């Protein structure tokens, strides 16, 4: 019920590129978010999603996050996870376009899940360095085996609690950080604060499911108002965060 109300409110306030006056954001919206090109990678993502949905594998799950609203916490079929907790084809395509548009070299993903998002990011640039963290070892190992079959070799897989793994990252900064796990207000803010020191002027943060719950929306509001953040783009399912000091502080709601 919360998401329905939130979506109605979002639609009432959201605009398209014609409501954007910042050249940087206008280009981002028109050339990335609204890019209608039928990329070859989309076919690969479609086939990967189908392979997940057709899988007969059942995983024993260790869930360190907020859990699933629809799936059993202990044992889950990969086919069911692919339908509910894995990135959708639409979101995966968006992650591909985003990674291609900005040309990210160093990427961090919080929440590997079945590797759908990881695959999309990797397809955009096969020379990028991707670190992906997953709380469940069985899920991480499954995703790793699936992505290796696709020839993806530029991903480093880490297993464990997000904050523990973040605290020992050797990388000084990342071009792109995708927050896609542990849908909890306090945890999301904690990860955000912990990773702020690893940004540079052109870093991009993306938060998945910012209207997953009232708490997640409160976390999004906190992030928007952080003094390190200059521009945000709210597309309902995802929130994009920019730190460009040359940009005037602005916050946009964009319909996809």
Task: Outline the secondary-structure elements.
Blueprint: H1 2-13, H2 23-33, H3 40-53, E1 58-60, E2 75-77, H4 78-84, H5 89-102, E3 106-110, H6 116-124, E4 129-134, H7 137-149, E5 155-159, H8 162-167, E6 176-179, H9 185-195, E7 204-208, H10 214-224, E8 231-234, E9 238-242, E10 250-253
Task: Write a brief structural summary.
Helix content is about 40%, strand content about 15%. It contains ten helices and ten strands.
In total, the number of strands is 10
Q: What shape does the CA trace take?
A: globular
Beta-strand percent range = 15-25%
Largest sheet: 8 strands, mixed
Please give the order of strands in the largest beta sheet: 5-4-3-6-7-9-8-10
Q: If you average the pLDDT, what whole number results?
A: 94
Radius of gyration: 17 Å
Total DSSP helices: 10
The secondary-structure element order is HHHEEHHEHEHEHEHEHEEE
Report how far the terminal alpha carbons are from each other.
21 Å
Instruction: Give the proportion of residues in helices.
Output: 40-55%
Low-confidence stretches: 66-70
Structural class: alpha/beta
Structure description:
It is built from ten helices and ten strands. It has helices at residues 2-13, 23-33, 40-53, 78-84, 89-102, 116-124, 137-149, 162-167, 185-195, 214-224; strands at 58-60, 75-77, 106-110, 129-134, 155-159, 176-179, 204-208, 231-234, 238-242, 250-253. α2 (23-33) crosses α5 and α5 (89-102) runs parallel beside α6 (116-124). The two termini are 21 Å apart. The chain has 256 residues and is an alpha/beta fold. β6, α9 and β7 form a beta-alpha-beta unit. The strands form two sheets. It has an eight-stranded mixed beta sheet with strand order 5-4-3-6-7-9-8-10, sandwiched between helices. The chain has a two-stranded antiparallel ribbon with strand order 1-2.
């Amino acid at each position: 019920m919360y998401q329905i109300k939130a979506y109605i409110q979002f639609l009432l306030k959201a605009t398209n590129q014609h409501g954007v006056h910042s050249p940087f954001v206008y280009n981002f919206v028109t050339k990335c978010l609204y890019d209608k090109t039928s990329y070859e990678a989309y076919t690969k993502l479609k086939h990967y999603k189908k392979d997940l949905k057709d899988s007969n594998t059942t995983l024993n799950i260790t869930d360190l996050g907020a859990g699933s609203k629809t799936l059993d916490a202990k044992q889950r079929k990969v086919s069911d996870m692919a339908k509910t907790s894995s990135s959708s084809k639409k979101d995966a395509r968006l992650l591909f376009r985003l990674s291609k548009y900005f040309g990210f070299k160093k990427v961090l993903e919080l929440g590997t899940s079945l590797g759908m998002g990881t695959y999309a990011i990797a397809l955009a640039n096969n020379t990028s360095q991707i670190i992906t963290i997953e709380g469940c070892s069985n899920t991480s190992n499954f995703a790793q085996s699936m992505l290796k079959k696709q020839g993806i070799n530029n991903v480093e897989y880490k297993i464990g609690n997000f904050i523990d793994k973040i605290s020992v990252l050797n990388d000084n900064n990342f071009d792109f950080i995708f927050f896609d796990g542990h849908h909890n207000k306090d945890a999301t803010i904690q990860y955000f604060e912990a990773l702020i020191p690893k940004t540079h002027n052109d870093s991009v943060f993306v938060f998945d499911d910012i209207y997953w719950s009232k708490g997640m929306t409160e976390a999004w509001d906190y992030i928007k108002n952080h003094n390190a953040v200059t521009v945000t783009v709210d597309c309902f399912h995802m929130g994009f965060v920019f730190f460009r000091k040359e940009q005037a502080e602005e916050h946009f709601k964009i319909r996809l």
